[in-house]
């Protein structure tokens, strides 16, 4: 293994190319996660609601069952997870052949259409694959073949999935956020990114920073300005990057959110009261801080 890593160190272009291809393949799986995790969560919530009705309102629950008023929330197969069933066309439900499922290339070969029904396939699939490939290739260029690269690549895959789910569902699942918060603390137990003390304080401060803003906004306006998933996402970045990066992440995410929000209002006619997921902006800011946070802070301090 050490010889292989040494070889990769000697040929950085080869390493970056391998990282690009590998990440594109994982990007294909990220598309599956973005689509299927919310469905799995909704089914779990429905089962919990039905269990509650059965326990506390058994007569009403039995009546609903007898009249067949309790229906599934989707038309998907009963067994539905990240592996089963296989990928199908969302329109005609025909199985997607393995060579058509090749990252980026498969979509191009099909001309962006289903091989059977010829209905358009959303370009978001190859775009997410390309995004994963470019970001991880950038990590390979920045970190080289190190543990920092391996862990930051895994983190990047999770962040892309979180951003995609939040864009679709206004949801940041704990099933992804919390394990990666703990992974950040575990990585910094060995001091791979920041000292463990900074990571622990960062996780606490990251959560409390947006939690405080949430309650201040709610007390002033009576409305909820963000979700609890945003607090946990900030805690995640605090665990990975330390408390020192939190002000930068908050400033960058606010700036990115303001720019994109104003652009959508100007060019898409979006109303001011329309909810906007804040998670993707935190993801963008946090990923920038992961690579260039210290350089940005140093540049800013030199300018004071």
TrEMBL record:
It comes from the Bacteria. Residues 21-143 form the Prepilin peptidase A24 N-terminal domain. It is a multi-pass membrane protein. It is found in: Cell inner membrane; Cell membrane. Keywords: Cell inner membrane, Cell membrane, Hydrolase, Membrane, Methyltransferase, Multifunctional enzyme, Protease, Transferase, Transmembrane, Transmembrane helix. Pfam families: A24_N_bact, Peptidase_A24. The chain crosses the membrane at residues 14-35, 149-167, 176-194, 200-221, 233-266, 278-301. Its EC number is 2.1.1.-, 3.4.23.43. InterPro entries: Peptidase_A24A_bac, Prepilin_IV_endopep_pep, Prepilin_pept_A24_N, Prepilin_peptidase/N-MTase. It catalyses: Typically cleaves a -Gly-|-Phe- bond to release an N-terminal, basic peptide of 5-8 residues from type IV prepilin, and then N-methylates the new N-terminal amino group, the methyl donor being S-adenosyl-L-methionine. Residues 154-262 form the Prepilin type IV endopeptidase peptidase domain. Coiled coil: none annotated. Plays an essential role in type IV pili and type II pseudopili formation by proteolytically removing the leader sequence from substrate proteins and subsequently monomethylating the alpha-amino group of the newly exposed N-terminal phenylalanine. Belongs to the peptidase A24 family. This is Prepilin leader peptidase/N-methyltransferase.
């Amino acid at each position: 293994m050490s010889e292989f890593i040494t070889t990769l160190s000697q040929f950085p272009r080869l390493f970056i190319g391998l990282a690009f291809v590998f990440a594109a393949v994982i990007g294909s799986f990220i598309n599956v996660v973005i689509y299927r995790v919310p469905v799995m969560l909704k089914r779990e919530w429905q089962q919990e609601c039905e269990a509650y009705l059965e326990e506390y309102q058994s007569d009403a629950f039995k009546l609903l069952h007898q009249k067949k008023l309790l229906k599934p929330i989707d038309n998907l197969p009963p067994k539905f997870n990240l592996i089963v069933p296989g990928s199908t066309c969302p329109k005609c439900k025909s199985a997607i052949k393995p060579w058509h499922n090749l990252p980026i290339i498969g979509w191009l070969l099909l001309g962006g259409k289903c091989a059977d029904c010829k209905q358009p396939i959303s370009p978001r699939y190859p775009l997410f694959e390309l995004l994963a490939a470019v970001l991880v290739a950038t990590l390979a260029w920045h970190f080289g073949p190190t543990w920092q690269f391996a862990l930051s690549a895994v983190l990047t895959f999770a962040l892309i999935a979180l951003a995609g789910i939040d864009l679709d569902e206004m949801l940041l699942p704990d099933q992804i956020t919390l394990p990666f918060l703990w992974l950040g603390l575990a990585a910094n137990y060995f001091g791979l990114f920041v000292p463990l003390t900074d990571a622990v304080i960062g996780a606490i401060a990251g959560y409390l920073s947006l939690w405080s803003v949430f309650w201040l906004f709610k007390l002033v306006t009576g409305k909820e300005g963000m979700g609890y998933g945003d607090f946990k996402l900030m805690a995640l970045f605090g665990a990975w990057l330390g408390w020192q990066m939190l002000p930068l992440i908050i400033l960058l995410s606010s700036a990115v959110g303001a720019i994109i929000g104003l652009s959508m209002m100007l060019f898409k006619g979006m109303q001011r009261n329309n909810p906007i997921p804040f998670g993707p902006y935190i993801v963008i800011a946090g990923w920038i801080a992961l690579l260039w946070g210290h350089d940005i802070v140093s540049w800013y301090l030199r300018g004071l």
